[in-house]
Design goal:
The protein is mainly alpha-helical. Helices cover about 60% and strands about 5% of the residues. It contains three helices and two strands. The protein has helices at about 1-20, 50-60, 75-95, and strands at about 30, 35-40. Strands 1-2 form a two-stranded antiparallel ribbon. Strand 1 (about 30) and strand 2 form a beta hairpin. The chain is elongated and about 70 Å long. The chain starts with a helix and ends with a helix.
Amino acid sequence: MSTIWWQESLTDISSSNRSMAKKKKVSSLRCPTCRTLVLAGDPAFPFCSDRCRVIDLGKWASGGYVISTKINDPEELESIAEAQSRKQIESDADDQ
């Protein structure tokens, strides 16, 4: 008798878990400019308005936002590699 109760309980739990998994989460973010809560379905997402979008664009255009890593030119990378190989050759020659 306790086995039947146990199986029914497991069935109830698994069906309730499935119904919970079917519920969609509402995606939302804070507007990067004014920190207002914005839902993913809004037309200006991730901004709350066109005004905030233009303010953000202005910050990028004026240099207010900066990417933290330096973007290297391929020629610059080649010259760095050559300099390192020269140093390695010189240090090998000094060791002998």
